[in-house]
């Protein structure tokens, strides 16, 4: 048997042609997103023995592989997840920061304008035009708060819509990946084009949430989402969905279902765009809305209480300017009931002390019989509440009422004391004469110890024993025994009582007591005579702009809003820094993948030239073999 030059040349031509094909395909796909560079593995054919030696019989392309580094691809997916989350957080926070910087200015401006109008009323308390302007300023302030709440509500709706859109896309990708897995299982994972498409889809998926890829022996890949949900298992894909939130339906949650089983997905474990959207909604938007509600409650309660401390132009105890803080329109959304509850309890929340509110939300749980726990969701602090009648009284400025039914062990409720207030605040006073500019006169008895002072909180003309406008009432205080006795204008005793927490609420008068030392007989007289030109209560109202009434005496009315604004600005700046860091990490991972799997046109051009020369050389062998054959044929002719 002789060496078959033509056969060897043929294999060389075929192999070179294959190499040229692979190289050409690389060059053609240099700009194709998700394409991994391919290489042809060339091997020698089996040798044949001639005499005492072995001679080669040619070459062939044994395999066409794509250049792929699983570790580099994993780093890229992690970088993509981080960058997706960072981009989303920065985008949403920047939008909210702009909202507070532009639209949000009308809230503190409205409050300042209202205080200025009250100051004008104090200057000319009988001028009806100024009083009308003051009510107009109150209306504009309330509208500004309403509009700001509407903007925050729109942000929530927009974020929910984005969550739904991303979830829909995740669903589409999961189904595509399951189909690809089915094809790969048929081809045993050898189809490079399908593998590229699979990796591209997984990389896109990693932008939306954290992805863990589990290679299977069949050539397919299972995909775990967020470290807890098996999104794709072989050729089976889970169905992702968005359902009504629990306990608040307008705050949707994500679910994963397969056949007839559905489970809730923890958004805090998702990462990527989905995790960032949920974090923005739950950790920024909802708290901002609650704090705006806290401001609305503070404004309404402060001025309504001040109204009840004075007399209007009609000579009557002042009535509310704003809607009552416990009006149903102001209390919408304060309680959310979890769907897992088995009890029948219907809950409501009553605000007792606006100054003690923090803007937080709470979880109320019934742990064991008679044992209620109130957990601050922001600080994590837990307080045990005791049921008194149908009420659970907290130290946070509100009371929880069990309106009907009963709780079962394990029942939970989310409490948002300030929810709904910003949307519900409104001016209910229509008569400008109703502004209570005048106030009662407080006189301390000359024989007092001088160590005790009192401050009026409010008056209630409907209370039993109220002496009425034009009269007076005197309280003799015994701070040593924590008791008091009240007298009318003629000196007749109206009754006695106990001082509770340095406060007296009796005969229509509610006032606080401050005492540095105990005394046995300090007397104070409230002169309830109405004077048309009096402005003492209006002056007191105007001074409230600088008084720390909120957050347990640590902030003013406007500072509640300004603190929220500053916090959002701080979060936006932090998100910007995080985005820069995430982009750098992603770029590093991307460059590494490209250096290994990307197409280098210079390198491919060199390969093209090399394989072209190889092809020409193999063809030359065929030509040489033909010449030899012709020569031999001629020699024997």
From TrEMBL:
Ranges in coiled-coil conformation: 156-183
Record's subcellular location: Bacterial flagellum; Secreted
Pfam families linked: Flg_bb_rod, Flg_bbr_C, FlgK_D1
Residues of the Flagellar basal body rod protein N-terminal domain: 7-35
InterPro entries: Flag_bb_rod_N, Flagellar_basal_body_rod_CS, Flg_bb/hook_C_dom, FlgK, FlgK_helical
Domain Flagellar hook-associated protein FlgK helical as annotated: residue spans: 93-322
Family recorded in the similarity comment: Belongs to the flagella basal body rod proteins family.
Protein name: Flagellar hook-associated protein 1
Gene name of this polypeptide: flgK
């Amino acid at each position: 048997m002789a060496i078959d030059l033509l056969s060897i040349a043929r294999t060389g031509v075929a192999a070179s042609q294959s190499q040229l094909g692979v190289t050409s395909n690389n060059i053609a796909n240099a700009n194709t997103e998700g394409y991994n560079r391919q290489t042809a593995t060339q091997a020698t054919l089996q040798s044949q023995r001639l005499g005492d030696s072995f001679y080669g019989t040619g070459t062939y392309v044994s395999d066409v592989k794509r250049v792929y580094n699983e570790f580099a691809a994993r780093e890229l997916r992690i970088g993509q997840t981080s960058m997706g989350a960072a981009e989303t957080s920065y985008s949403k926070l920047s939008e909210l920061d702009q909202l507070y910087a532009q639209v949000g200015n009308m809230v503190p401006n409205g409050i300042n304008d209202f205080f200025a109008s009250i100051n004008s009323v104090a200057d000319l308390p009988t001028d009806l035009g100024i009083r009308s302007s003051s009510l107009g300023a109150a209306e504009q302030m309330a509208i500004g708060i309403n509009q700001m709440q509407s903007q925050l509500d729109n942000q929530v709706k927009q974020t929910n819509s984005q969550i739904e859109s991303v979830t829909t896309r995740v669903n589409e990708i999961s189904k595509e990946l399951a189909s690809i897995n089915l094809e790969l299982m048929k081809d045993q994972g050898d189809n490079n084009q399908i593998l590229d498409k699979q990796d591209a889809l997984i990389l896109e998926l990693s932008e939306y949430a954290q992805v863990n890829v589990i290679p299977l022996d069949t050539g397919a890949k299972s995909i775990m989402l967020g470290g807890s949900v098996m999104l794709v298992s072989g050729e089976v894909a889970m169905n992702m969905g968005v359902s009504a939130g629990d306990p608040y339906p307008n705050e949707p949650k994500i679910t994963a279902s397969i056949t007839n089983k559905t489970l809730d997905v923890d958004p805090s474990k998702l990462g990527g765009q989905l995790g960032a959207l949920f974090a923005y909604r739950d950790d920024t938007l909802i708290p901002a809305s609650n704090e705006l509600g806290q401001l609305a409650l503070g404004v309404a309660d402060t001025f309504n209480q001040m109204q009840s401390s004075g007399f209007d132009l009609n000579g009557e105890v002042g009535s509310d300017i704003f809607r009552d803080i416990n009006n149903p329109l102001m209390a919408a959304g304060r309680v959310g009931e979890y769907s897992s509850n088995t009890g029948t309890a219907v809950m409501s929340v009553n605000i007792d002390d606006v100054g003690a509110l923090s803007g937080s939300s709470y979880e109320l749980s019934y742990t064991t019989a008679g044992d209620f726990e109130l957990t601050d969701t922001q600080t994590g602090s837990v307080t045990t509440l005791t049921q008194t009648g149908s009420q659970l009284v907290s130290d946070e400025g509100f009371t929880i009422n069990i309106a009907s039914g009963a709780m079962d062990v394990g029942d939970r409720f989310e409490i948002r004391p300030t929810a709904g207030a910003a949307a519900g605040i409104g001016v209910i006073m229509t008569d400008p004469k109703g502004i209570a500019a005048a106030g009662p006169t407080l006189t301390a008895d000359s024989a007092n110890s001088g160590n005790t002072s009192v401050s009026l909180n409010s008056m209630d003309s409907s209370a039993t024993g109220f002496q009425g406008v034009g009269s007076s009432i005197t309280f003799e205080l015994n701070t040593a025994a924590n008791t008091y006795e009240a007298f009318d204008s003629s000196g007749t005793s109206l009754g006695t009582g106990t001082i509770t927490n340095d406060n007296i609420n009796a005969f229509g008068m509610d006032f606080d007591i401050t005492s540095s030392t105990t005394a046995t007989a300090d007397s104070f007289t409230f002169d309830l005579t109405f004077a048309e030109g009096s402005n003492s209560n209006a002056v007191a109202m105007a001074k409230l702009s600088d008084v720390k009434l909120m957050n347990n005496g640590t902030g003013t009315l406007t500072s509640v809003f300004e603190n929220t604004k500053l916090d959002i600005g701080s979060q936006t700046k932090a998100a910007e820094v995080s985005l820069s860091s995430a982009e750098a990490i992603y770029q590093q991972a991307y460059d590494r993948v490209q250096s290994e799997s990307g197409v280098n046109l210079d390198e491919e051009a060199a390969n093209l030239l090399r394989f072209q020369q190889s092809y020409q050389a193999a063809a030359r062998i065929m030509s040489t073999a033909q010449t030899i054959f012709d020569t031999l044929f001629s020699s024997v002719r």
